[in-house]
Amino acid sequence: MNRTLVVLSFFNFLFSTAFSQNTIKGKVLDTVEITATAGQNRSLLYQPASIATLKTTELKRGQGIFLDDAINGNVPGVSMQRRSVSGGQQFNIRGYGNGTRGARGISSNFDGQGYKVYLNGIPVTDAEGITLLDDIDYGSIGNVEIIKGPAGTLYGQAIAGVVNLKMVQPEKGKTAVQQDVMVGNYGLQRYTTRVQTATDHSALLVSYAKQRSDGFSMHNRSNKDFVNVLTEFELNQKQRLSTYFSYTNSYDERLGELTLDQYAAKDYSGNIEYIKRNGHSHVSSFRGGMEHTYNFNESIYNTTAVFGSGYRSDASSAGGWTDKTAVNYGFRSSFGTKFLLNDAISLSGITGIEMQGQVAQTVGYNMKQNPADTTTTPWVLGKPYWVVNASTSNMFTVTGTSTLFTEWTLALPHQFSLTAGVGVSRQRVSLDDRFNPETAAKPSHYDTSYKQMVSPHVAINKVFNEELSVYAAYSRGYKAPASAYFFITTPVVTAPATPASGRINSSLKPEVGDQFEIGTKGALYKGRLAYQLSLFHTKFSNKMTTVAVQLNSTTTAYSYVVNGGDQVHNGMETSLKWFVVKDGHGLFTSVAPFANLTWSDFNYGNNFIFQTGTTTGNITTTDYSKKSVAGVPKITTNAGIDVTTKPGLYASMMYSYRSDVFITSDGANKSSSYNLLNGKIGFHRNIMRRFELDASFGVNNITKVQYPLMIFVNQLPDAYLPAPLNTVVFGGLELRYNFN
């Protein structure tokens, strides 16, 4: 923390000297471009919620191709982790985590749950509420907006929040071709080709990117191909039409998690059980969507989007091999309305529906030694990988989710506004076990629905002199159980002799998140100082967790999911950016220090107690009550500076601090705090009128600090997915030719 205080003191000095600079043209906060909102004024100043926005400056401050560096460095209260070079990504919004999976506790380490992600208006989150992020071209993202906290009113089952992603857009009036190249150590290579053209009434962008890395350890390679096509048309004064299509082929090797001892010894050889099974994640996917907006008049408009996506994946790990094929489809339609009630009062709203369905089949296999490997010695790197063996499961699922929503904002005199809305969501799950024959003791079909998940939102906002605002808000969100939670299979037991059986886990209830938040935002001193500050109290009820049933003192017979109890999250988030120089006419055209801070006091509630076991002799009581939520640092802070100059040179530097983190929910294991220092310099220049050149060089983890890309919560002996131990060096070159 001493380093943090030094850095913040330095910025305090910069802020104090800035008052002597020449005044600059005033500006308001960023506007909300993607996120659904009921208000007419889309400036963040008028949004009674905590919404983070990332534009080109933040997205390209680091490597700009993985997104986690932009999220972790610029969005207080939100973290992004990954399991490999560019796979297994997850968001954690205000400590919610990822639901549950497996047999080891409260949080899942394998998929994203609880939040919703959209890409150009198309849900990345499937109809079951699970988000797979391996196949996103983060290097082509141009805008990110994140709603922090329950957002069920306008987005359905978004108990933790919403992440809206938007691809880079064609520049109006420009026709250009661009080639980008990035290379770095650990074999990093990325090549991106873009062709764009845009007029006042139409736009087209086509891009292809190839990205690869050898990884920083054994069995850690990554290969990805991305294709993106987007169009926009202004059909007439009343109608607009946009489309987006993408294809991705993504392959990431997994070295497996390190144990506590491996991490302490800086032994990055991975988990041999992963490596011998060729641990990996392979995803081939497509997405497509079309959005149409019709303005009936100055008071009413409709926006309707239809979308579809599909993917085929195969993944292997220490547990075996899994194939999955899934198709998602749906639509979202909303009416925007705005009425001027008198000269000082107006009413605006958004009312609509979103529906999404999914058909999926998941087949699991065990694995065996490759027949070409005739040795009897333990497997070592260099021997043939194990191969797929017999099928162990085959699950066919049909899921559907729908949300009806309406939200209204009443704008009052003196820049007061009241916002109120409600969303009603429903989830349907149909499961068919295609592997286990149905018997009287073992069902193979289950169908259930979760209805009337009602999510209200109420807020009040007050703006002062169009410079700062204060707000108070209440919101709710839900998360229904995933399909993997319902079948409980009891294996064959030899002593005493008991045949295999099964039952339906029909008592599960959706999790509920309720959040109270107060905050303030502003763009002060004629636009020099942009800031946000929020305080929140969130309670997650019916939090799902996995419990294990012990056969005896050393063997787990089976596991299943239960609604455990409550989690109570109290937190504070603040961010600021100070334009010491902006639109300057001297050597420096922009000098902008920035900083953010997150304080998290997240705990399990008073009633987080459950029992496991089958007989009196082996019943175990687990009590997490009042313990700290695992996987979230109490203190997170970032500070840095961006500088641009008239000749075209630019530079940025960022310092990050993360306090220690509990690895297990019982509080018995904790990771160490760490500090990171990253920097980047570059040169941007127009050449011969039609050419644009951008060359950059960056260094991450300058001081070679050991830190994790991801912590595996409640998964001991597996504990860490490590980041590269050495400094990461990269360089980029962008060359663009403008035809006009």
TrEMBL record:
<feature type="domain" description="TonB-dependent receptor-like beta-barrel">
    <location>
        <begin position="239"/>
        <end position="702"/>
    </location>
</feature>
<keyword id="KW-0732">Signal</keyword>
<feature type="domain" description="TonB-dependent receptor plug">
    <location>
        <begin position="47"/>
        <end position="162"/>
    </location>
</feature>
<keyword id="KW-0998">Cell outer membrane</keyword>
<dbReference type="Pfam" id="PF00593">
    <property type="entry name" value="TonB_dep_Rec_b-barrel"/>
</dbReference>
<dbReference type="Pfam" id="PF07715">
    <property type="entry name" value="Plug"/>
</dbReference>
<keyword id="KW-0798">TonB box</keyword>
<feature type="signal peptide">
    <location>
        <begin position="1"/>
        <end position="20"/>
    </location>
</feature>
<keyword id="KW-0472">Membrane</keyword>
<dbReference type="GO" id="GO:0009279">
    <property type="term" value="C:cell outer membrane"/>
</dbReference>
<dbReference type="InterPro" id="IPR000531">
    <property type="entry name" value="Beta-barrel_TonB"/>
</dbReference>
<keyword id="KW-0813">Transport</keyword>
<keyword id="KW-0408">Iron</keyword>
<dbReference type="InterPro" id="IPR036942">
    <property type="entry name" value="Beta-barrel_TonB_sf"/>
</dbReference>
<protein>
    <recommendedName>
        <fullName>TonB-dependent receptor</fullName>
    </recommendedName>
</protein>
<keyword id="KW-0410">Iron transport</keyword>
<keyword id="KW-1134">Transmembrane beta strand</keyword>
<comment type="similarity">
    <text>Belongs to the TonB-dependent receptor family.</text>
</comment>
<dbReference type="InterPro" id="IPR012910">
    <property type="entry name" value="Plug_dom"/>
</dbReference>
<keyword id="KW-0406">Ion transport</keyword>
<dbReference type="GO" id="GO:0006826">
    <property type="term" value="P:iron ion transport"/>
</dbReference>
<dbReference type="InterPro" id="IPR039426">
    <property type="entry name" value="TonB-dep_rcpt-like"/>
</dbReference>
<keyword id="KW-0812">Transmembrane</keyword>
<dbReference type="InterPro" id="IPR037066">
    <property type="entry name" value="Plug_dom_sf"/>
</dbReference>
